[in-house]
Amino acid sequence: MGASPSRRRDSLSQVLLVALVGATVSALAAGGLAWSLGATTAADTFWTAGTVVALVAAVWWLVIALRRGKFGVDVIAVLSLGGTLAVGEYLAGALIGVMLATGQALEHAAERRATKDLRALLERAPKEARRRHGDDVETVPLAEVAIDDVLVVGPGEMLPVDARVASEWAMLDESALTGESVHVDVPAGHEVRSGAINAGGVIEIRATATADDSTYAGIVRLAREAAATSAPVVRLADRLAQWFLPLTLVVAATAWWWSGSAARAVAVLVVATPCPLLLAAPVAIVSGLSRASRMGVIVRGGGALENLARATTLVLDKTGTVTSGRPRGTDIVVAQGWSPSSVLRLAASADQFSPHVLARAIVDEARERGLALSPPTDVTEEAGKGISAVVDGTRVTVGNRELSDDPPPWVAAALSQASFDAAAIAWVTVDGRLVGAILLMDPIRSDAPRTIRRLRTAGIDRVIMLTGDRAAPAEQIGAVLGFDEVRSGQTPAEKVARVAAERERAVTVMVGDGVNDAPALATATVGVAMGARGATASSEAADVVLTTDRLDRLADAMLIARRSRRIALQSAAIGMVLSIVAMGFAAVGLLPPALGALLQEVIDLSVILNALRALRAGAGERPALTAGTQGLIRRFSAEHDVMRADLSLLRDTAHELAVGDRAAALVALRRTDAFVQDTLLPHEHAEDRSLYPALTRPLGSPEATATMSRMHAEIDRLAYRLHAHLDQAEATGSVALAQTEDLLACLYGLHALLSLHFAAEEESYFTLLPDASPSTGRSST
Fold it and tell me: Where in the numbering of this chain does the P-type ATPase A domain appear (predicted)?
C-alpha cells in the first residue's frame, strides 16, 4: 500500500527544505571563497543567487500564510531579502537567506506531527465474519452480515458486530471498550458489543446490528471526527510577531522618510529579520522534544509540546492509566479450620493452566508468597463458572458460585469486604464444601500519587477521571488521588463529549491506553497515550506517547515542556530586544546593512545558545541520582518485593487468633516474629543507615526522609511489643486470652503501618529510578 497524499506532501516538504538549506549555505560559502580570492563580482553573483532562492521560498511561505489568514514574521523576511537586492547589499541578503532557511527547517522538524488517521483502528477491525447456515459455516464480507445472522467467533477474535450471545456462556475481554481489565462472563441471551475480544472458547452470537451501526464502527467514526476538528496550532513566532512586525515597519519607514535613503530602511529590516523568532523558539522546542524522548516520552511536534506547557486541566482514564491494568490478590477470607495459605495454595494449584486473568492473578499471588503448588489433574473449565481440578486427591473448584440466602458469617464478611473494596471474588470449594474467598483488585500505580502532586505543582489545577468501570472502584481511587471529579460508566461518546467540554474551558490533556480512549485523545488539546503495552490505536490518536509503562513520565514531560516554552519565549524576547536596539542604530545611519547582518548573526548565536539550555534538566524535574544511590534503591526495592508477600503472615496470625485456635496462633506468631526480627527490622535499619542519607542531596534536605524515619521508629515499637507477646505465650505454652485484644491490635496495626510505609517509599523514592517500572503495591486504594 502506498503512502497517503498527506504523508507524501510532508516528505516532499522535508526534501525541499533540505535542498533550500543546502543551496543558501552553498551560495554563502562559495561567495565567501570568491571574495577571499579577490573575485568580488563572482562573490556578488553567488550571494545574489542565494538571496534569490531564499526570497522565492519566503514569498511562497508568505502566500501560503496569507491564504490561511495569517500575517506574521514572514513579511519582514520578504522585505529584508528584497531590500538587500534592491540596494545591492548581496552579502547581507545571503546571510539572511541562510538564517531564514535554517529557521524554517528547524521549525518544520519541531512542529511536524504524526498522522491522526488512526489506521490501527481500521486495521484492527475484522473485515470478514463466519456465518452459520444450519450445519455449515461460511466466511462472508462483514458488510454482508445482517441482523439475526448467527456468527461464529473463535478464541482471541474480535466480535465483529453488536449481538446477543447464542452460546450458553461467553467470556469476553471488554477492556478495549470499557477499560475494565477483568474478563466478563456473559450468559446466553445477553447483549454484547463489537470490539470486545472472545477470551474463552468458540462461541456463537446473533447479530443485533449491522457492522456500520455497531459500537466499534462508532468508535472509529468518533476518532476521525475528533481528529478532523482539532484546532491548528499557531506558531509561537507568529504570536510574538503581532506587535514586533508593526514596530519594525514603522521604524523602517521613519528611517527612510527622515534620511531620504532606502538603504537606511533596508538596514533596519536586516537587523529586524526575525531570526531570533525563527531560530530560537524552534531550537528550544526541539531541545525539549529531545529531552523528552530520552526519558521515554515521544512528543509529536512542537505544537504538542507548546500546548502541553500551557495545559491546566488533566483528564485521566482509570484502568491501565492510574491503575496497573492487572488484577492482584489483596485478601483471603476463609472458613473456620482453614488457613489463608492453604486455601490460596489449593486454588492456585487448580488455576495453574487457566488463561483467565483472575486465575493468573491467583497463581501470581501464591508464587509471591512462596507457596509450593501441586500439579492438577482432571481439569475442567466452564465459562462463567470457573475451573475444577483434582489437587492432592481432593476436588477443588475456583470461580463463581451461587450462595444461599443465609450465608455463614465468614461468607457475609467476604461479601461485605468485597463491596467496600470494589473487589472481584473467586470462591474456593474443596470436595463440595465452601472453604474460602480470594479478593482481587486492580491496584493503583505506585507512581500515580507523586505524579498527580507534581502535575499540580507544574500548573494543573483540575484533574478529572473518566472511566467505563463501575462507580465503586472509581470513587475510591478518586478519593485516594484527590481528583476534582470522577465519572464512571462512561461510553467512548460520553468521554469525547466531556473532554470537548473541558477543552472549551481550558487547555486540556487527556491520558488513556485503550481503543475506547482513542476518540477522546484526539478530541483533547493534547492526547497522551500509555503506549508501552502496544496500545496502537490510542498511540495513533495521541500527540504524546509514553513508551515506558510509567505514569510519572507525564509529569516529566510537562515540566520539560513548560521549561522549553519558557526558554523559547525568553530567547525570542532577548533577540527582539537586541534587534530593536540595533534597529535604532541602523535608523540613524550607524549600522549599514552588511554590518547589520553580521550583528544579527551575533544576536542569533546568543539566543540559540540560550535556547540550548532546554537540553539540560531544570528545577522540579527528576533529581539526578549517583550510581551508588541507584544501586541502593534497587537493593531495597528488591527487598520490598520479597517481603511484601510475607506481610500476609501478620493477617494470617490475626485470623488464627480471631477464630480462637490458640495452638495454631502460637505457631503462626512464631513465624511472624521470626520474619519481623530476622528480615523486616534489619531491612528498615539498613534503610535508615544507608538509603536515607544517600537521598539527602538529590532530594535537597534531610527532612525529605524524616517522616519515613519516624515510621521506622513506630515499626520498631510494634515489633518489640509483638516479640514481648511471643515471650509471654512461650512461657505459658499458648496465647493467653488476656493477650488477644492487644495482640490483634499489634498485628493489624503493624500490617497497616507496613503497607503504608512500603507504598510511601515506593511512591516517593523508588520511582526516582530512571529505568525502573514502579511496583503496583498491594492495594488498589
Answer: 125-223
Structural domain containing residue 366: 328-441
Phi, psi of 298 (to 5 degrees): -95, 115
Dump strand ranges (E) for 335-393. Answer: 377-382, 386-391
- The continuous run of DSSP H or E covering 630 comes out as helix 627-646
- Residue 315 pairs in a beta bridge with 464, 510
622 belongs to a structural domain:
no
The answer to whether residues 275 and 370 belong to one domain is no
Task: Convert the pLDDT of each residue in 638-675 to its tens digit.
Answer: 888 778 777 878 887 887 787 777 777 888 899 899 99
Beta bridge partners of 192: 163
The CATH number covering residue 204 comes to 2.70.150.10
C-alpha cell at position 50: 542565494
The percent helix, strand, coil of the chain (3-state, each to 5) is 60, 15, 25
pTM over 0.90, yes/no: no
Give the residue from 425, 441, 457 where a domain finishes: 441
How long a stretch of residues is the chain? 781
SS (H, E, C) 460-491: CCEEEEECCCCHHHHHHHHHHHCCCEEECCCC
User: Pairing mode, if any, of strands 462-466 and 377-382?
Assistant: unpaired
Residues 452 and 420 in one domain: no
Q: Output the CA angle 605-606-609, nearest 5 degrees.
A: 85
CB 215 within 8 A of CB 519: no
Using an 8 Å Cβ cutoff, are 600 and 582 in contact? Answer: yes
pLDDT, tens digit (0-9, with 9 covering 90-100), for 560-587: 888 888 887 787 777 778 778 888 888 8
Give the residue numbers marked as catalytic.
317
Read off the DSSP letter of residue 230: P
